[in-house]
Design brief:
The chain is an alpha/beta fold and 133 residues long. The chain contains 3 helices and 8 strands.
């Protein structure tokens, strides 16, 4: 059963959308007009996968979980190996906190805490992962 989409609460929909778009390259797409609050939908797809979306939903009282970390809640995404270094620079330039993984793996990966909400993402080098899995 494939994942249909991921929904994330945020107090700042435009800021979160801007961060994800300009760092990870996720593209804003049309969201339905029948949603009773501020939302933004982004296409997370790559050339290899054309079906992943993230839905940002305005939640005025939103607070991130205190368990956002490698061994806790985080969101793992694949990223092209050739762009890993540039991605790290884009993330740092937009205020993300980069974190080295605790658990060693034979493929490149790292974590970051995004600066708008405090969500933690794991970024996995998809080229190395496919070779090692």
């Amino acid at each position: 059963m494939p994942l249909a989409h991921l929904a994330l609460g945020t107090r700042n929909v435009p800021g979160t959308m801007d961060f994800l778009h300009h760092t990870l390259g996720w593209t804003p797409i049309h969201s339905p007009s029948n949603v009773p609050r501020e939302v933004a939908w982004l296409d997370m797809s790559t050339a290899r996968d054309r079906s992943q979306q993230i839905h940002l939903i305005h939640v005025p009282e939103f607070q991130v979980s205190p368990f956002e970390r490698e061994f806790g809640r985080h969101f793992a995404v694949f990223h092209e190996g050739a762009d890993m270094s540039a991605l790290r620079e884009r993330l740092k330039s937009r205020g993300a906190e980069l974190m080295d993984p605790i658990r060693p793996t034979p493929f490149e990966r790292f974590f970051f805490r995004e600066p708008i909400n405090g969500y933690v993402f794991e970024v996995i080098n998809q080229d190395q992962w496919r070779e090692e899995s």
